[in-house]
Amino acid sequence: MRLLPTVINWVCTALFLAAVCTPAFAQELTSDDKATEVDDGPTDPMTLLMDFELNERLVVEAAAKLKTTIQQVPAVITVITAKEIRDRGYRTLNDVLQTIPGYEGDRWEYFGWYKENLTRGNPRTALVLLNGINVVGPIRNTLDLERRLPLDIVKRIEITSGPGSVLWGSNALLGVINIITHDGRTQPGFHLRLGSGHGEGEQNAVRSHFSYGGSFADEFVHLYLSATWFSSRGPSLTIDHQKIFGALPEPAGDGVSIFQPGPATVQPKARDQILSFNAAFDVGPVSLVWFSGIDLIAREIGPGGSILSQDYRTEPDSRITDDRLITSTDDHFHSLLLRYNKRFLNQRFGVNAQANGVLWRSVQDPFGVFPRSDYLPFGATTILNAPNITRMGLNVDFDYQLPWNNHLLFGGEVFNDAIEDVSLTTFDPFNGPAAGPDSCFEALGFHYRPDLDSQRPCSVTETALKDLNRTIAAAYATNEWRYGRRLAVNAGVRGQFSTTYDPALLVSSGLVVQLSDNIFAKVTYGEGFRPPDFQSTTSSSGIASGISVKANNNLDVERSRAVEVELNARLFENQWPIKQWYIRADYSFSRLTGMITFPAGEYENSGGRNVHSVELLSKLAFYGDHELWTSYYFVDVVDSDTGRLRNIANHILNAGARLSFLDSHLQLSSVLTWRGSMEDLNRTPLLPWTGPPFALDNSNLVQVAATGIEVTEIPSAVLLRLGISGRKLFGRWDISAWVYNALNTQYSDADFFFDDRITSRPQPKPGMSFFVETGVQW
After folding, report:
1. Within 13 A of 91's CA, how many CA atoms are on the CB side?
2. Residue 703's pLDDT is what?
3. 3-state SS class at 239
């Protein structure tokens, strides 16, 4: 193992030198350089003309076949294609976002319970769309961005940095992520992929994917079907202190936390199972798109860092088995889209109408909180059941080519969000298998229910979130006026209305100037908003588990306003050995107001935040299908109540290289990520424990009072991904091998919300792993 760092250093050096030197000896442009693969669309989405949905909803692609370039659209945009997903070894949407300027992907909360991202330093501020459908869950204003959505089905991802609510509405506070999936035209034929891998970062992983795409009736009918299965035992994580007991979230009272000092490595025992299904059926102007994802996940670390499967009792009792203590999650996500799009009046007028529905279901049975100890003899667990979270909507969009180079877009939407029957079942931690009907503490609401859990028969079931139904409607209009090829002016307005919050009026504007044939400057102003999530407005307080936050029915929407300046250029086009160099630099200032926080355990609108962001992107493409790319992102966030945010990385740098040999049949790839340092608010265990005895010697246990808070510096981290791929071998066979976190960097995340009570220690992240995959198409 000592040879590994040396080998990796040599490999990285070789990749860099080969990327620089190989183009100098490249041959003249081959037929493969000129061709575009059928299933990938444009090979260079940053500059080529393309159907661009993000600027004009789906009207552009669906109706007009109007084309724009990423240089001309009045927004800061990054596009990732299916080819780039394969070439860079992306596994999840979080992997993608980690390399996008303006985003910090793969940020963990509650020790991996949620895997999310930060947009310009702020959590849950990006709208996520699946084929134009808002799939951000209304309970927490977020969406899991991990394995549930297999990237095999993705045609491209269009990512906006900056507010986008004038066109998109709710949740586009600081960004928009539009995931566009394949259809029968973009990935034709049969595709089969099988893979397996292992390592501390992902143990005993296996994966399979199958898809079929076809066109019929002279390209009038298109069909795409896919199924994906992924299973692993998850990462092996090392926590720095073993948390045995601690305070519950506010408004519950604060108190002592008990730790066994020293690191402990958690070896997962149960397998995760993730299933995904996708179908797209197109008949002329009508499309039907369906997606379903099912996650069966096991977690052995509690939300506060407890090792749930550990038994700290003086006399361990095997009657309480591990499977009734670790968290088992059964999450479902289903979406259905019916779309009609067509053009009229000699292609001057376009219509795009769509009806959509989304269903979320989440059952955590059990939901582990604390392990077994002499303080909690049978552990602290609950059952969280959210069986019915729905969104039903209708969108209509139009575009019309007006005289004098005006292009008008207008439309509206109406949708309904609803939650029903969200319950929390709490088990009595002091009564185990021997308890009878007379043993339950009825004064605390516990009743004898052995049918729920025979090992802990005393429990109480309560409403966790009150039933809620809200309707949201909106109308918008934008117009773009062009003065020749050199100048474009864009302005828009949106009115947003709801049954649960006050109306909101939003505006946007943009100016795009073509300074030369391949150099553009942009100045834009945009606004965004995010409605209060259901958790903040419908939570039930005073429940038996004590895990509750006081709701607030009078919350206002959160608002954002941003000014952005961008300069982008395409340089050295077709000047051998360089095929093209695309470079972009932008600066933004964003002002957020009415941010929803929960000091003292009650949700409220707090003060504002000022966000400064600098983003750079460079893509250097060479003849011979070689590429060098870099991205850099700086962000500084100052909150009017808490000061400068310290739990975010102020600097993130990415660099990648791809070398192609043997007519692009052999590829070597690398992605290097440097994430800057950050700070975490923690509680450090220092004082000897003086409470009841545990299985371990009392002298080994320590406690920390509610006032024992410290700021922990989390150092910067370097993550390296290395891959080798064989493409289209014998015309139809692919094989690839990737090493993730190849340097085996041991690093942690700070808490999302700079919290010291629940996440009272830094959150460990996965180590090194590898994955080998082979695929065939016919």
Report:
1. 26
2. 81
3. strand
Peptide bond into 42 cis (omega under 30): no
Residue 267: CB atoms within 10 Å: 12
Residue 555: CB atoms within 10 Å: 19
* Residue 165 near residue 529 (C-beta atoms within 8 A): yes
Q: What are the E-state strand segments in 741-768? A: 748-749, 763-764
**Helix (H) or strand (E) run with residue 95 in it:** helix 93-98
Sign of the torsion formed by the C-alpha atoms of 163, 164, 169 and 172 = negative
| Adjacent-strand bridge partners of 770 | 198, 739
Contact indicator for 543, 426 with CB cutoff of 8 Å: yes
- Rounded-to-10 torsion of CA 38, 41, 44, 46: 180
Provide DSSP, 344-396.
Answer: ETTTTEEEEEEEEEEEEEEEEEEEEEE-B-SSSTT-EEEEEEEEEEEEEEEEE
- Classify strands 468-483 and 458-465 as parallel, antiparallel or unpaired: unpaired
The closest alpha carbon to 600, from 211, 108, 254, belongs to 254
Residue-level pLDDT at 40: 40
Q: Are 116 and 171 in contact (CB under 8 A)?
A: no
Domain 3-421+467-777 in CATH 1.25.40.10 = no
Question: Are 114 and 94 contacting, i.e. CB atoms less than 8 angstroms apart?
Answer: no
Give residue-wise pLDDT tens across range 437-479: 888 888 778 999 998 888 889 999 999 899 999 999 999 999 9
Q: Could you give the dihedral angle defined by the CA atoms of residues 691, 695, 698 and 700, in that order, rounded to the nearest 10 degrees?
A: -130
Alpha carbon dihedral 149, 151, 155, 160, in 10-degree steps, equals 70
**How far is Cα 67 from Cα 49, in angstroms, rounded to an integer?**
6
The model's pLDDT over 695-705, given as tens digits with 9 standing for 90+, comes to 444 456 788 88
CB 70, CB 77: distance < 8 Å: yes
pLDDT at 684: 80
Q: Give the CB-side neighbour count of residue 394, counting CA atoms within 13 A.
A: 2
To the nearest 10°, the Cα dihedral for 296, 300, 301, 302? 70
In one letter, which amino acid is 172? A
Strand order in the sheet with 126-130: 76-81, 154-161, 175-181, 126-130, 133-134
Chain CA centroid to CA 51, Å = 24
Within 8 A by CB and 6+ apart from 334, the residues are 290, 291, 292, 293, 358, 359
State CA 463 to chain mean position distance. Answer: 29
724 within 8 A of 742, measured Cβ to Cβ:
no
Q: How far is the C-alpha of 399 from the C-alpha of 345, rounded, in Å?
A: 12
- Show the 3-state SS of 439-455: CCCHHHCCEECCCCCCC
Rounded mean pLDDT for each run of 10 residues along the chain, 778 residues in total: 40 38 33 34 32 32 45 86 95 96 92 90 94 92 87 93 92 93 96 97 97 96 98 93 83 81 83 97 97 94 88 77 84 96 90 95 92 85 93 94 92 96 91 87 85 89 92 95 91 95 94 94 96 88 69 91 97 94 97 88 88 97 96 97 94 98 96 97 72 53 82 96 96 97 96 86 95 96
Pairing status of strand 678-683 against strand 221-232:
unpaired
DSSP class of residue 152?
G
Q: Are 716 and 676 in contact (CB under 8 A)?
A: yes
Give yes or no for a contact between 52 and 67, defined as CB atoms under 8 angstroms apart: yes
CA distances from 434 to 446, 451, 710 (A): 15, 14, 42
The label of the residue with tokens 């963990």 reads 108
The per-residue DSSP string of 393-444 comes to EEEEEEEEEETTTEEEEEEEEEEEEEEE-EEEEEE-TT--TT--TTTS-GGG
Kindly state the tokens that stand for 205: 């992983």
Supply the pLDDT for residue 314.
78
